[in-house]
Write the structure tokens for this entry.
Amino acid sequence: MSSKVRQPRQEMPKQQPDVRSKNFQEVALGYTEELAVAEANRCIQCPKKPCVSGCPVGVDIPEFIDLIAKGDFLGAARKIKEKNSLPAMCGRVCPQETQCEAVCTLGKRGEPVAIGALERFCADYERMHGDPLSDAQRSDGSSGRVAVVGSGPAGLTCASELAKLGYKVVLFESLHDTGGVLRYGIPEFRLPKAIVDEEVEYIKSQGVEIRLNVLVGATVTVDELFQEGFDAIFLGTGAGLPYFLGIPGENLNGVYSANEFLTRVNLMKAYRFPDYDTPVWVGKRVAVVGGGNVAMDSARTALRLGAEKVTVVYRRSRAEMPARLEEIENAEEEGIEFYLLANPVRILSDDKGWVKGMECVRMELGEEDSSGRRRPVPVPGSEFILDVDTVISAVGTDPNPLLVRTIPGLDLGRRGNVIIDEETGMTNIPGVFAGGDIVTGSATVIAAMGAGKAAAHGIDKYISARNGRGM
Amino acid sequence: MYRILKKEMLAPKIKLIQVYAPEICTHARPGQFVILRMHEKGERIPLTIADSDRDTGLLTLVFQEVGKSTTELGMLSEGDSILDIVGPLGTARDIEKLDCVVCVAGGVGVAPMYPEAKAYHLLGTRVISLIGAQTKDMLIFKDRMEKVSDEVYYSTDDGSFGHKGFVTEILCKLLEDGLRPDEVIAIGPLPMMRAAARVTERFGVKTVVSLNAIMVDGTGMCGSCRVTVDGEVKFSCVEGPAFDGHKVDFDELIARQNRFLAEEKLALERYLAGVGGCKCHQK
Ligand SMILES: Cc1cc2nc3c(=O)[nH]c(=O)nc-3n(C[C@H](O)[C@H](O)[C@H](O)COP(=O)(O)OP(=O)(O)OC[C@H]3O[C@@H](n4cnc5c(N)ncnc54)[C@H](O)[C@@H]3O)c2cc1C
Ligand SMILES: Cc1cc2nc3c(=O)[nH]c(=O)nc-3n(C[C@H](O)[C@H](O)[C@H](O)COP(=O)(O)OP(=O)(O)OC[C@H]3O[C@@H](n4cnc5c(N)ncnc54)[C@H](O)[C@@H]3O)c2cc1C
Ligand code: SF4
Ligand code: SF4
Ligand code: FES
């Protein structure tokens, strides 16, 4: 056993930094079969399975890794799918270092098993060699009818789970394409859209009807959905409302919210302008404000669109950056510059209303705040000016207010988040359920999926009880 | 897919199309808009709902060809299809009976004005409409506006119809002569709306403008459409497009409208080169 522990963690092959920073193809190329088996062999099959407790949806990690070690890749993929219906995505975007891999026994003395990379390998293998649609059961719709609002990971998972339970599901999405943040936020080079498409195909093959370009609350109201005969409604509308910095100059030309920038590029494919009609403008020197995944994605996208220099400005230190470690490293390798412990104060304008610089102040870490993180405080007199012509603000988002505001009496939290019963996912309004970022504020793909799944079971119980069926 | 059931040329470069969109029509109220996307590679184009018929489900849009997307839209004929339309978007105007409103509309802005003027008219409000255009040929919706207005004044830049000069000059004159409407509504090019708001401010007359900030999603998720109103940042796709004209920072908005000028020019030139620049078949 000890010999296994000494084996180094298998690195996943990647595109070289100087090549990938000029294209939008996926950066990480995935394990080969040999690498996957070698990595799977590192797992020591701990009887207590600490890793499983680190996964929000409880994937049977040692079991699927064991199947990989034995060469049964399709079996491993099926094993994962018992708990996680979107493994190709989670393997790519889960913050593994704070979840499953954080509690892996091997991590105590060396490097944890690359659980995410192995999960991704299985899903990709199944896509290429198996028939991912084969296990899709078409729902006969006999259990009842449910409307799911929002096609992000919460809505997709909820819809899929309800279809499995025999419901007729209609999934409503206000944009012209599915996926939520998976489509408009996370770039192609990190999550190829073909993977999102496949997941959507899977759900369709389960009998879920998808209706795009329907803004629930405007095109059709929640009351009307109930009148049309839906037994329950799930709100998975996400946290897409961007905040701005609240500093002078934030409406200058050349200042984007990360959502605008990424939506133009990802959803509208502005990186292929003028072949695609939607434009995006990126200058030579770009500052991205923030330290999360959204900031990393914006910075790396700007680089790929031809910016000469991209600087991430973050008010705490590297250790506090909420982005996935892998993406911070990828960004560093690609030559993104980091100004840590710095915060913007104002954005400077040229005489035509375009950005010509950003004034920042240095920060130092003071007392711990309520979240246990040391609070950054400005150092007086330490202002300096960054010479930039583009600023992308990636400082966070709030729950989408548009739909929830149209539902009278719905219980909302301080930030406009929907309040639910933790166990059932039901809001204070009978038959109205919610989950994902609309409940938690901006969180993770896997958490949104977990919430979608939990709500599907809550919905099933609710409808069954109402119909006097098996409680 | 939305098939174009009717197409009309209202003026050079100004066209009307009608599509069947019953869900949107059932919910549409004055002041709201839709976003359409012609095809897979298309932009999301915001257009105000110029008319919507709940009984027939027919949605009417009127647009002016200003760049690549609207020019391409203008090329579509009856029977052609538009890929997506989402709506109704934006906050509807709260329209209640008033004694008198003045509707100041410029250019293609007459079309989005029509549903509001009509709503006021149906409530018995006295509607005075001031309609401006570059030249006589560019005046649109004349009959419709006359039907819902108690008085209509015209202006053209070249004097070919009505007053020669800006429509805001008529507004100024009416106010100087003592007219005190409960509300002035101004819809048209940004400089026109700014001028109207400046005029009415002098007389302390409430003024509502309808902003056409550059949009992407139109559902409050990107902030592309942000405008400063009374010192605060607002998303015009959700909180607007109508705002108090005296509080809008027009200078900032006008600068923001130019954000993609170079790209827009490139797209149009490339498109026109591709279609040969010839527009004879459009007739
Ligand atoms: C750029 C970026 C990078 C990220 N990177 C990661 C990462 O690496 N790892 C990770 O775990 N998480 C990441 N996240 C966070 C993660 O994507 C979100 O937590 C997750 O997508 C939330 O899922 P959701 O289903 O709740 O909402 P969303 O994905 O936001 O989907 C909500 C959907 O609802 C639709 N909608 C909203 N209102 C209506 C309405 N009224 N009617 C119809 N439809 C409506 C929206 O258009 C949208 O499609 C990232 C987020 C962003 C923005
Ligand atoms: C709420 C709203 C309602 C509108 N209603 C109407 C209407 O009823 N009739 C009509 O003719 N026009 C209307 N417009 C304007 C119309 O959307 C633009 O003229 C159109 O998008 C221009 O696209 P283009 O490719 O043809 O021109 P481009 O060459 O791309 O742009 C020409 C100019 O149009 C503006 N513009 C460009 N893209 C957008 C965009 N995505 N959103 C808004 N403005 C943009 C910019 O000022 C730009 O300089 C409305 C705009 C908004 C925001
Ligand atoms: S779903 Fe995410 S947290 Fe769970 S095992 Fe897979 S990578 Fe780890
Ligand atoms: S904790 Fe790590 S080594 Fe142990 S079973 Fe889980 S993955 Fe394998
Ligand atoms: S257009 Fe995106 S927020 Fe208004």
Q: What stands out?
A: The two ends of chain A are 47 Å apart (CA to CA). Confidence is low (pLDDT under 50) at residues 1-5 of chain A. The pocket of iron/sulfur cluster (ligand 3) is lined by residues A 55, 57, 59, 61, 84, 90-91, 94, 96, 99-100, 115-116, 119, 446 (CB under 6 Å). Chain A is about 35% helix and 15% strand.
